[in-house]
Specification:
The complex is a heterodimer.
Chain A lengths: L1 H18 L4 H4 L7 H10 L6 H13 L13 H36 L4 H15 L2 H15 L22 H7 L3 H37 L3 H8 L4 H38 L5 H10 L3 H29 L1 H4 L2
Helix pairs in contact in A: 1-13, 5-6, 5-9, 5-11, 5-13, 6-9, 7-9, 7-11, 8-9, 9-11, 10-11, 11-12, 11-13, 12-13
Chain B lengths: L1 H28 L3 E6 L20 H7 L5 E2 L5 E2 L3 E6 L5 E6 L13 H12 L8 H4 L2 E7 L2 E6 L6 H4 L10 H14 L7 E7 L3 E6 L12 E6 L3 H10 L4 E3 L3 H7 L5 E16 L8 H9 L3 H8 L4 E3 L21 H10 L8 E7 L7 H15 L1 E7 L2 H9 L6 E7 L9 H5 L11 H7 L8 H18 L2 E14 L2 E2 L14 E2 L1
Parallel strand pairs in B: 1-10, 1-11, 14-15, 14-16
Antiparallel strand pairs in B: 2-3, 4-5, 5-7, 6-7, 8-9, 9-10, 11-17, 12-16, 12-17, 13-17, 18-19
The chains are: A mainly alpha, B alpha+beta.
Chain lengths: 324, 509
C-alpha cells in the first residue's frame, strides 16, 4: 500500500512540475546562447525526451538508488535531501510536543474550570489560534520575541560561532546524548519560535477537541462513580476521564502532524531554518526538477510513515481495535 | 502550592528573557565578528560554472573569497588586480596580461601566471560548463611565461577584458583544483581573495576569516559571518534586534523607518540594475504610434517618488548614468497629450482604447507589480487598456527564450560591467535568446558593433543604437534601482555600484 502511495505521488509530481510554466534550461541560458546551446543543455538534462520517457529514466535510477543530480546545487539529490531531513524532523517533533503540551494544558484547564471565566478565556485563545495561520504567528513571534524582547534567535538552526562535534544531522538529539547542553540550549533558542509558530494552530485544535471529549466523558457513569467514591476533580479528570477522552484527539494529532510537516515549508523560509522545506522553496524557484522530485518523495514517505505510526498507536491504546 | 508555582514561573520567564537578551544583544556591542544578513543562499562555491555563476547577487560572496582577473572598483571602473596590466598587441591578434607577483593562495602556495592561463583555458572549454564560455572561447592557445600571460585572439571580442571583472571572470588555483577535483573544491574552496572560508553550512551561513596575506591589505574585520536570510521581514528583524550588523534589500518604507533609529544607519546608492518593459514585435506593438504613446504616457518620476519613496533614477535608454555608453541627450519624456495624438492617428482613444496584455512579476523586484499597476492607470488615461498578467520569474525566462512574451513584459536587467553589449546588446539583438524585439533594422545596426575594434567608434555606435531604440520606442526603460543597505552605526559600509555587498570594503566607524 505504501509503495503504491509513493509511486502515485512520484507520478503526479513528475508530471505536474513538467507541465507548469518555467523550465530550468531557460533560466540558465547565458546571454550569447545559440539554439544549439539550448538544444545541448536540454539534452544534457534529459529534458528533450517525452515525459513518460523521462519518468522511466528517473524511475530506473531511483530503483538503483540514484535520484539524479540537483541542477542548481550540482550534487546528488538524495544525500542533499537526507542531510536536511533531520533538521525538519527535529523541528516538527518539537512543534508537536509544544502543541500537545499547550493544547493539553488548555483542554485540562478549560475542563477543570468549565462554565467559568477561565474556560471563556481559553475558548477565545483557541479561536485565535485556529483563525490565525502559522506564518502570521511566525511574524508576530519575530516582532515580539525576536525584536521587541529579543529572547530567541530569528534565523538559522545554530549559532555559526559554535564548533559542532556532531556526527549526525540530528543536532538536538545528539547534543543531549553527548551531554552538550550548551549546544542544546543554542539549538533550542533557534528552534523555539519556528516550532511555536507551527504548534499554535495545532495546539488550538487539540485544545478544542480534547476539551470537548473531556466534557462529554465527565458525564459518563464511571466518572460519576469515581466522583461519588470521593476522588477530587483533578484526579477524576487526569486519571479517569482523560484516558478515554484522548483517543479521538490522538487520531486527529496524527492527521494534523502531516499538515504540520507541510507547514515547515513556509516557516523554515521565514526563519531561514536549514531544513527540507527551505530547500524545497529554492528548488521550486530554480525549477530544479530532480531536487523537487526527491524532496516530494521524501515528504510523501514521511507522511505515510506518520499515518502508519498513528494507526498502530491507536490500535495499541484502543483495546476494541486491538482485539477486533 | 499554587502561589509558589506562579512565582517560579515568573522567575523562570524573567531569567529566560534576560539571558536571551544578553545572548543576542551581545552582537551589537562587540564587533569582533561582523554579521551580515544576506538575501540569497549560496548554492555552489565554484564561481565559474552552473546557475550560481551568473547570479549577480552571489558575486559579493565569490569576490570575498576569490579574486577576479581584474579588480572592479566601487564606481565600476577597472583597476589592477591579480592582473596588473593588460592589452592587445598592435594588430589585435593577441592579448597579453602581466600577473601580480608575491600573491599566495589561501593554503599558502604561491599564485603564478600558470593559474591565470589555466583559469582562462578552463573557462573557454565547453566541457567545464562555464555559462560564459561563448566569450572565453574567443581567445585560445593561452600561455604563461614568467609573470606574463598571452593568448591568441580566435574572434575579436572588444569586451574580453571587461568580462575579466564580470560574471565567471575568476582565477582559480590550478594545482589545488587538479589535486582535489570539483567535489574537493566544493567542500574546501580556496582563492586569493580577502577572506578565507572557515565554515560553510548550506542554506544557513558561511563564516569567513580574514586573509592575513591578502595582496590588497588585510581586511578590517577578522571574522565575517554571512547568514542567508532570504525573507525580507526576517532580515529587517535581524538588524533591528541587533543580531546582524549589516543587511540589504528590504522594502524602502522599512529602510526609511529604521535608518534613523539609534544604532542603525542607512546607506543607499544607485546600482547597475534597471527596470524596463520589453516590447514584443507582435500586434499591437507593430504599430509605432502605440509603442511611442505607451512610452510617452509613463511619468517615471512620479512612479519613483510615489511608489519607491524616491529611491530610483529615471532612465530613457538601457544605459544608466554610470555606463560607458550613457548619452544624456537621449530623452523620451512624459507627454500624455502627444501620446493621445499618436493613438488618435491610429484610431484609438480613451473611449476606444488599444488593448493588449502586460506581464509582470510580483515581489521579485521592489514594487514591481505596483509599478505596472500605476503604468496601466497612466495608460488608461491616454487610450491604452492593458490587462495585467502576473507570472513567476521562471515563466518569464521560458517565454523570453521561446520569444512568446506578451506584447509588453516588465523585467529587470543587471549589467555591472557597464558595457553597452551587456545591456542594449544582449537585450535588443534579435538572435540573442534574451532579446524580445527582433526587427531586422535593429539587427543590422547592432551586428557590426560586436566586433568593432575602434573603441570610440564602438561606443558611438551603441549610442546611435540607443537613440534609434528610444526614437522608435522598441523598449521602455523605466528606472535605475537604488540599493538600500541598513547597518549598525558602528560599521561604515562602502556601497559598490554593481550591487555587491563586499565585507572587505566595510570598516569600523
Amino acid at each position: 500500500m505504501m509503495a503504491i502511495t509513493l509511486f502515485g505521488a512520484a507520478v503526479i509530481v513528475f508530471v505536474v512540475i513538467r507541465i507548469v510554466p518555467g523550465n530550468p534550461i531557460a533560466m540558465m541560458l547565458p546571454p550569447g546562447a545559440t539554439d544549439e546551446d539550448i538544444a545541448r543543455l536540454t539534452a544534457h538534462y534529459g529534458l528533450d525526451k517525452s515525459i513518460p520517457e523521462q519518468f522511466v529514466v528517473w524511475l530506473t535510477g531511483v530503483l538503483q538508488g540514484d535520484f539524479g543530480t540537483s541542477i542548481s546545487l550540482r550534487q546528488p539529490v538524495m544525500p542533499l535531501v537526507l542531510g536536511r531531513l533531520p533538521a525538519t524532523l527535529e523541528l516538527s517533533i518539537f512543534a508537536l510536543v509544544l502543541a500537545v503540551i499547550i493544547g493539553g494544558a488548555m483542554a485540562l484547564t478549560g475542563t477543570r474550570f468549565r462554565g467559568g471565566r477561565t474556560e471563556a478565556v481559553i475558548d477565545v485563545a483557541n479561536g485565535a489560534g485556529l483563525s490565525i495561520p502559522d506564518f502570521l504567528w511566525a511574524l508576530v513571534l519575530i516582532l515580539t520575541l525576536g525584536v521587541l524582547y529579543p529572547v530567541f534567535h530569528i534565523s538559522g538552526r545554530i549559532s555559526p560561532s559554535l564548533d559542532l562535534p556532531f556526527t549526525t544531522q540530528f543536532y538536538a538529539f545528539e547534543s543531549i546524548l553527548r551531554l552538550r547542553f550548551d549546544l542544546w540550549w543554542d539549538l533550542l533558542k533557534h528552534m523555539f519560535m519556528p516550532a511555536l509558530a507551527l504548534a499554535i494552530p495545532l495546539a488550538a485544535i487539540i485544545g478544542q477537541l480534547l476539551k470537548q471529549s473531556l466534557k462529554e466523558t465527565m458525564h459518563l457513569d464511571y466518572v460519576v462513580l469515581a466522583r461519588t467514591k470521593g476522588y477530587g476533580e483533578n484526579h477524576v479528570i487526569l486519571f479517569e476521564a482523560l484516558r478515554n477522552a484522548v483517543l479521538p484527539t490522538l487520531t486527529l494529532i496524527g492527521v494534523q502532524f502531516t499538515f504540520l510537516i507541510g507547514g515547515t515549508v513556509i516557516i523554515e523560509r521565514l526563519f531561514s531554518y536549514e531544513g527540507l522545506g527551505n530547500m524545497a522553496i529554492d528548488a521550486v524557484i530554480n525549477r530544479d526538477l530532480p531536487l523537487i522530485q526527491g524532496i516530494v518523495l521524501v515528504f510523501a514517505l514521511l507522511f505515510t510513515v506518520v499515518n502508519l505510526v498513528v494507526d498502530l498507536t491507536y490500535a495499541l491504546l484502543n483495546p476494541r481495535l486491538r482485539h477486533a | 502550592m499554587s502561589e509558589l508555582s506562579r512565582r517560579t514561573v515568573l522567575k523562570g520567564s524573567t531569567a529566560l528573557a534576560v539571558a536571551g537578551m544578553i545572548g543576542t544583544r551581545a552582537y551589537a556591542q562587540d564587533i569582533d565578528e561582523l554579521v551580515i544578513a544576506y538575501n540569497v543562499n549560496l548554492p555552489s562555491w565554484d564561481p565559474t560554472v552552473g546557475l550560481s555563476a551568473v547570479n549577480p547577487t552571489l558575486q559579493a560572496i565569490y569576490q570575498s573569497v576569490f579574486d577576479q582577473f581584474i579588480l572592479q572598483q566601487p564606481d565600476l571602473s577597472p583597476a589592477p588586480g591579480l592582473v596588473t596590466e593588460w592589452g592587445w598587441n598592435d594588430d589585435k591578434s593577441q592579448i597579453w596580461m602581466k600577473v601580480r607577483e608575491g600573491v599566495t593562495w589561501h593554503d599558502g602556495s604561491p599564485f603564478t601566471a600558470e593559474d591565470v592561463a589555466w583559469s582562462l583555458t578552463r573557462a573557454g572549454d565547453e566541457a567545464t560548463g562555464n555559462p560564459i564560455q561563448f566569450i572565453w572561447s574567443t581567445i585560445g592557445n593561452v600561455k604563461a611565461e614568467g609573470n606574463m600571460v598571452t593568448a591568441d585572439v580566435v574572434r575579436f571580442e572588444p569586451t574580453i577584458f571587461k568580462w575579466m571583472y564580470f560574471l565567471t571572470g575568476y582565477v582559480l588555483p590550478k594545482a589545488y583544483y587538479e589535486k582535489v577535483g570539483p567535489e574537493g573544491f566544493e567542500a574546501a574552496p580556496i582563492g586569493t581573495g580577502p577572506y578565507m572560508v572557515d565554515k560553510f553550512e548550506r542554506n544557513a551561513f558561511v563564516r569567513l576569516k580574514a586573509n592575513p596575506n591578502y595582496w590588497g591589505g588585510k581586511p578590517e574585520f577578522e571574522t565575517v559571518t554571512i547568514k542567508f536570510v532570504t525573507d525580507a521581514a526576517s532580515r529587517v528583524a535581524e538588524i533591528e534586534s541587533g543580531n546582524a550588523h549589516v543587511t540589504i534589500e528590504m522594502p524602502y518604507e522599512e529602510y526609511d523607518r529604521l535608518k534613523g533609529n539609534a544604532n542603525i544607519e542607512g546607506t543607499s546608492a544607485p546600482i547597475s540594475d534597471i527596470g524596463m518593459i520589453f516590447l514584443n514585435d507582435v500586434e499591437p506593438m507593430l504599430d509605432e504610434n502605440v509603442r511611442k504613446a505607451a512610452a510617452l504616457a509613463i511619468d517615471k518620476k512620479l512612479i519613483i517618488d510615489r511608489l519607491l519613496s524616491g529611491y530610483g533614477v529615471a532612465i530613457d535608454t538601457l544605459q544608466t548614468p554610470d555606463y560607458i555608453a550613457y548619452d544624456p541627450s537621449i530623452t523620451v519624456g512624459y507627454d500624455p497629450e502627444k501620446a493621445k495624438e499618436l493613438l488618435a492617428a491610429s484610431g484609438f482613444s480613451p473611449d476606444n482604447p488599444v488593448k493588449f496584455k502586460i506581464q509582470t512579476t510580483r515581489g521579485f523586484k521592489p514594487k514591481d507589480y505596483e509599478i505596472i499597476q500605476a503604468i496601466v492607470g497612466l495608460w488608461r488615461k491616454v487610450g491604452i487598456e492593458a490587462e495585467i498578467e502576473v507570472y513567476e520569474i521562471a515563466k518569464h525566462f521560458e517565454l523570453r527564450a521561446a520569444d512568446t512574451l506578451a506584447p509588453a513584459a516588465f523585467y529587470n536587467w543587471g549589467n555591472s560591467v557597464g558595457d553597452p553589449t551587456t545591456s542594449t546588446g544582449f537585450a535588443m539583438f534579435g538572435p540573442s535568446p534574451h532579446s524580445v524585439w527582433d526587427g531586422e533594422d535593429l539587427v543590422d545596426m547592432i551586428g557590426p558593433l560586436w566586433g568593432e575594434a575602434d573603441e570610440e567608434k564602438r561606443i558611438q555606435g551603441w549610442k546611435d543604437v540607443d537613440r534609434y531604440i528610444a526614437e522608435n520606442a522598441l523598449v521602455i526603460p523605466l528606472l535605475q534601482y537604488v540599493q538600500p543597505i541598513l547597518h549598525s552605526s558602528a560599521v561604515k559600509v562602502t556601497p559598490h555600484a554593481s550591487g555587491a555587498l563586499l565585507p572587505h570594503l566595510m570598516k569600523r566607524s
